Amino acid sequence: MGAIERLAISKNGFVFDPATGNSYTVNSTGLFILNLLREGKSEDEIVDALVENFEVSQEEARRDLLDFLEQLRVNGLLEASNV
Amino acid sequence: MKRPYEKPVINKLKVNFMNKFGTGTFSLSKKVRKEIEGVPVEKLVEEFGSPLFVFSEKRLRQKFREVKNAFTLRYPNVEFSWSYKTNYLDAICAILHSEGETAEVVSEFEYEKARRLGVPGNKIIYNGPYKPISSLKTAVEEGARINIDHFEEISDLEEVAKELGVKVKVGIRLNMDTGIKPQWSRFGFNLESGQALDAVKRIAAGGVLELCGLHCHIGTFILDPSAYEKEVKKLVDFAYKVEDEFGFKIEYLDIGGGFPSKNRLRGVYLPPDVAVPSIDEFAEKICGALLSSLRPGDYPKLILESGRAIVDEAGFLITTVHASKRMPDGRRAYILDAGVNVLFTAFWYHFNIEIDREVVGPSEPCILYGPLCMNIDVVDDDVNLPPLPRGTKLIISPVGAYNVTQWMQFIRYRPGVVLIGENGSVELIREAEDLSDIVRREKLPERLKVKWEE
Amino acid sequence: MYKVAVSGINAVDNPGPGVGVAKSIKQGDLEVKVFGLAYDAMEPGIYMDWLIDRSFLMPYPSKGEEPFLQRLFYIKERYGLDVVIPNLDAELPLFIKAQKELSSFGIKTFLPTEEQFKLRSKGELPKIAEEVGLKVPKTITVTSYEDFVKAVNEIGFPLMVKGVFYEAYKAFNISQATAYFNTLVSKWGYPVIVQEVVSGEEMNVVGVGDGEGGHFGLVAIKKLWITSLGKIWTGITVKNEKLLQAAQSFVSAFKWRGGFEVESIVSENEVYLIEINPRFPAWVYFATGVGINLPLRLLKAALGMEPERDWEYEAGKLYVRFTDDFITDMDKFQEVIVNGEA
Question: Is residue B318 scored above 70 in pLDDT?
Fold first, then answer.
């Protein structure tokens, strides 16, 4: 099971990783993306979902998703895919 | 119905950093500033571009009057002399001259700039360790007050006096121990070692100079008002010694500047609103020390060369977020269109940083980089900011002191400077530079003309 | 029911006084609700619900006066707040400066004036020592590395290197001293204090000055066993006349208002003044335990009541600090993290 799947996520944005004991806070957009990632959605699908649900342009959503994935990688919650 | 968007953020909780109010200089209240003195930031940038320095005439005049009142209410004979090096933009100097400040200059360039602005020679105080002899001659001819920095300058001035056939009134600059560390000992003559007395003897022996003033500048961004109390007491004691033993009359005591502004000095834990004493506290110590140590009926002129304390808080810099980056350690960084090239004082302070719009999303620790391709170009390395979209304007303050004199041209043009008048008018007081400003002095030998073969 | 906020609830290996203050005022004859003011979601006091009824994360004092006061006003408006007892050095300048403003919003304090506070700054100690008849170890305040080296050469080893607000280290050589110096500068900025080490018994006095030259009680103690950080682990009450006399002279000469701790070293016939802290020490509950509930008396003074002034205590009472632990759910932690209060 990947790190994303095992996270305990509460609705108020508190995230707990039972394997590492680390805790995180995540904002509502981040929570939205985390949930889609757990469902196994692709980057394109997530961008579409963001545009559909939030007042955001395709371009900004893609840029921010990249940044969020990078945050997850920095925190060890996603594996670095391009190294 | 679509939901309002904020940029996605996830933050790992770290021991000792579990405080949602953050550790950086950006506090819990996201500081939003949509206007400066009633003029929208957006409009300023639209009209004059970014980055842009903005000065408030109202703040400048208010601050000066506050400082002036603090002293004139406590001592009957005070002169304020505008420290040109702090900010020698014509418009800024002109405002302070209109408030009654004379000009305090430290180079022939500043001297010429003051004269060009219409300041008469006898309203200029000429300080500094390097005064070319030609400039001393001009200063003597035009009646400027000159404060001597070293023995060679005594000789230079004697030469000028003889050449012009006049007796020249001069001041000498002293340095002394007032408890302030580091002690500024490189300017003037040291008091404790007896060097200052030697300088007086030397002046008396020469016979063509008349000592009439003492000058001392104990340091910069002084947070301890009692240091000035010590300075003043030592100056008064020395003045009487000079008067009693040499027959000179000390007409003025110039205590320099060094009063702090409400800027956040690096390396000071407490915020400026708690750490920085009010100007009244300084005035109380200084005037109290004067009145308690001067002889009855003797009120030599007290000269103050306050710069930073008067102009710093009148200045803002508007800068634009050009890009954002995620650093390998997870921190977010922003690249701005202004850096240490125009914000020299970033090396000393953590500025107050405000944003031009409401941005939703949690604040996180950020680094602000300038536009230079140099590692030192960091405006702040620890600011808590919400996720900023590209194009967000940051309003950085206080930046009124030293930046528009110490800014450098390195790889970029220096930005424009505007003044918001007391009535809300916006006037350009220094145009943004362009290529012509930089190449005007260059000469390319004909034989080196660049020609590309087709 | 009085609502009292207490800071310094970081009951860790280098504890703040907050938990001791909370414990003391809960044991008094006033009905109080205690609010904890914390700077980190992991401060143990937040989870000690038998002493602290609700806790709030505070912005750091270094963030500026306004956000800090706004946070207190928020607590006042939302939950009611009668008195704040600040217990951390880094907060005190802000509280002292803002005491009038706080009071105008109905939040009372019992603090020294700005002048009194400045007096006890480390540079002014010799002045106080002279006034109250004590000696001081040689002390040099430095604001640069060069001055630091000079001071170290002047004083010689071993010596103490102290931060402007917190932390003091004993250094036996230059590399140790330099390491401490660098740590302190990066954490607390300048100045840094270099002090001669005097040997003798470490004795301290805790008290509350009434602001008019009198006091609401004094208790002197000796540290018997300290941690590697110099924090008391076991102590004993003493009645050292010279030291208690000096503490009384201090209160009367400077009309001290509020809680304070006098730190001293007693050797043979001399008492050296090491430091005066303008707040309660972390072991303040010791005084409560021997019958002089100083935090409660300070609270009463803040509320405008007339506190007790008796201070008969027995010498030879033992203070024992011990470790304990308890288990709780993550809920409260989550709430503090997300909402800043719980």
Answer: yes
- Helix axis angle, C174-188 relative to C145-155, nearest 10°? 140
- pLDDT tens digits for range B191-242: 999 999 999 999 999 999 999 999 999 988 888 899 999 999 999 999 999 9
What single-letter amino acid sits at C93?
P
Domains of chain C (ranges, CATH numbers): 2-110+325-339 (3.40.50.20), 116-134+199-320 (3.30.470.20), 139-196 (3.30.1490.20)
- Tokens at B153, concatenated: 């300058």
Identify from B12, B360, B364 which residue to disrupt to test chain A contact, counting A C-beta atoms within 10 A and taking the largest count: B12
Grouping H, G, I as helix, E, B as strand and the rest as coil, residue B40 is: strand
The Cα–Cα gap between B277 and B224 comes to: 8
- As beta bridge partners, residue A45 has none
Q: Which residue has the tokens 């003493």?
A: C238
**Interchain CB distance below 8 Å, A25 and B11:** yes
Secondary structure element (H or E) that encloses residue C38, with its range: strand C32-38
C193 vs chain B: nearest CA distance in angstroms? 13
Which domains can be identified in chain B, with CATH numbers?
Answer: 35-55+313-432 (2.40.37.10), 128-304 (3.20.20.10)
- CA distances to A73, B63, B334 from B6, in Å: 20, 40, 17
C209 SS3 class: strand
Provide the angle, in degrees to the nearest 10, between the axes of the packed helices C294-302 and C18-26: 80
- Give the tens place of pLDDT for each residue, C33-89: 999 999 999 999 999 999 999 999 998 888 888 889 999 999 999 999 999 999 998
Among A28, A53, A71, select the one facing B330 at the smallest CB separation.
A71
Domain boundaries, chain A: 3-74
The CB density around residue B293, as the number of other CB atoms within 10 Å, is 16
Q: B15 and C42 in contact by Cβ < 8 A?
A: yes
pLDDT 10s digits, C197-240: 988 888 999 999 999 999 999 999 999 998 887 889 999 999 99
Please return the burial class of B285, using the count of CB atoms within 10 Å of its CB with bins 0-12, 13-18 and 19+: buried
Structure tokens at C105: 């919003």
